[in-house]
Specification:
Structural class: alpha+beta
CATH architecture: Roll
Shape: globular
CATH topology: Pnp Oxidase, Chain A
Radius of gyration: 16 Å
Number of helices: 4
Distance between the termini: 18 Å
Strand order of the largest sheet: 1-2-3-6-5-4
């Protein structure tokens, strides 16, 4: 194992650190690829339930159109200003579309917990407001890469 690999392992977040980090962050950057191969990156609010990243996306967006054609995605959540404060996670995999699109609030047991988390985290509310423009994307990551430079 070379020095780069050892350093990479030293700065990885534990599962508990990752859960705490994702629970405390609001904004992520979502990278998609269009049918013609053009990359696209956009910012979104999210909720993390310990297993899946829940993204609430506008359905009339390039991101939504890209993901309808190719559900593969890479999502970056990072924080810190100074070098020793930098930390983050890159979660990759394929999204699943959950619920009606756009979301109008129809009862959906799979969305109860993520909507409660998202509403509390991002709006300070107990229940999710629905605007008829957004819908849910669920990412159960196939790959997660983390770093926390404060461990150096």
């Amino acid at each position: 194992m070379d020095a780069t690999q050892r350093r990479g392992r030293r700065i990885m977040m534990t599962d508990g650190e990752l859960d705490s980090f994702l629970a405390g962050q609001r904004t992520c950057r979502v990278a998609t690829v269009s049918a013609d191969g053009r990359p696209h990156v956009g910012a979104l609010w999210f909720a993390w339930d310990g297993t899946a990243l829940w993204l609430y996306s506008i359905t009339r967006s390039r991101r939504w159109a890209d993901l309808r054609k190719d559900p593969r995605v890479s999502v970056l959540v990072d924080a810190g200003e100074e070098y020793g404060e930098l930390r983050g996670a890159e979660l990759s995999g394929s999204v699943e579309f959950v619920g009606e699109a756009p979301r109008t609030g129809e009862p959906n047991p799979e969305l109860e917990a993520p909507e409660r988390l998202f509403a509390a985290k991002n709006f300070g509310l107990e229940s999710m407001p629905h605007d008829g423009r957004h819908a849910w994307l669920k990412l159960v990551p196939e790959s997660i890469v983390t770093w926390d430079f404060s461990k150096i």
